[in-house]
Specification:
By secondary structure, this protein is an alpha+beta fold. The protein is 48% helix and 14% strand. It starts with 6 loop residues before the first strand and ends with a strand.
Length: 537
Amino acid sequence: MPNNQKITALYCRLSHEDMLQGESNSIINQKDILTKFAVEHGFLNHQFYIDDGYTGSDFNRPAFKRMLEDVEDDKVSTIIVKDLSRFGRNHLHVGLYTEEYFPQRGVRFIAINDNVDTADVNSLGMDIATFCNIFNEMHVKDTSKKIKASNKIKSDRGQRVASRPPYGYRKSEHDKNILLPDEETAPVVRKIFHLCAEGYGPSQIAKQLEDEKIITPAMYEYTHSGTILSNFDVSRPYAWNPTTIALILEDVSYLGHTCNFRYGRPSYKDHRKLKRPESEHKLIENTQEPIIDQNTWDIVQRIRKSKRRRTNFGEKSIFAGILFCADCKSKLYFHRHRNNKPENWKFVCANYRKNTSSTCTTHSIKESHLKRLVLHEIQAITQSAREHPEQFADFIGRRVNAELNKTIAESSRQLTKYKKRMTELIVIFKKLYEDHVLGTIDDDQFQMLSQGYATEQSELKEQIGSLNETISQAKSKTADTARFISLAKKYTTLTELTQEVLHTFVSRIEVHERTIDSFGKEHQDIDIYYTHIGAVK
């Protein structure tokens, strides 16, 4: 393309941080300066490329990318910016573009306020451009530190750090630090949680929302604020991502809490969003009106924790993830044949199924029988909790304390045993080392013996840590009988064992093997561990 027909690219950029600095760097101000310069110096056919609200620390900007495409297509003769900081604040990348990339493609680059013009490589502006770029990057680094310090102060005050409210909430018109349920999106959040409580997985929920033509969070943000979120596709407004559903189901914001510092970036140059370890999270409770009640949240978290696998025929059991063998503690496998009727579907011990010659046995139980049995037990215990709350609370309290004391005593005895062995190993290691130095044992013997003892020592350390954790949990654990009674009063008519009812009242079920009494009659016991109160026998 002839030079007189090529574009003079006038590039403008403004980040969110730059907006706080006043009018001097505003897009309007940049456009005025660039237009005046282009006209006064005879640059024709000028065209604006504007990135409003984009950081200068990287070059992942839509207008900048479009400008580079035009450069590659040989449509651009000159690029003009107000100063080098508007072009970018990463000194290595800015230098690569201005000193190599543009000159190699015959593109002239001008930064007005910094007196940089690649047409005059010997000018003072070109000589000091590298230092300008370094100072511009230092500004980004300094700003990053200030933002982090400011966020910590906000968090310590009990305020939310994130600038955008979670889907389902909106900022108060009177105080931007206060979140209120959004009348349009809060019902969608409730729907997502209730579908999960009914047994739907993230993929199924995403498909249902898409079928119901409910727009995605990204589309909702775009239609209300014009903000384009990452990976947003305007042509697919109802294409919900299962990952988005999963993130919503794990967000404590919907309980009315704020969790700061869940995500972070490796550095001011690396903008990848990475999940931080839980130890770095800052939870602030009761900061806004909850969208989801505690019971629904607990049900969903138990379901999400025990992710359920479909059978080869596409079915899932409501018991999947909470049903275990009472002897080997393996999960029970949901088993059915193609021609089996639903009333004959059954569970078997996964350990036995993998290896029939194992020490464990089938522990087989029909799903239909288990449903009837568990429903009957839930009906009985919730009725007792509703009708005799004081006696129920007293009974549960005494039983839980007795079981916890038993757990603490057994774990303490085992802990004493392991610690004694650790002390013995220290003595053995010392004696072994002395024998090796004195030549009583050779190198091979020393290596073999020390390796065996080191392995044992490592295993003991793990076991001691696990026992300490068990004892600590047992000492801090108490039965939340009041919570269980409250739930019992909520579910007054239980006629069917649904996914929601099961996970509201039951956290674990253990199935024993069948036994036959002296009269030839079969018996099979199951242990039900109820939420908030444990097993009741």
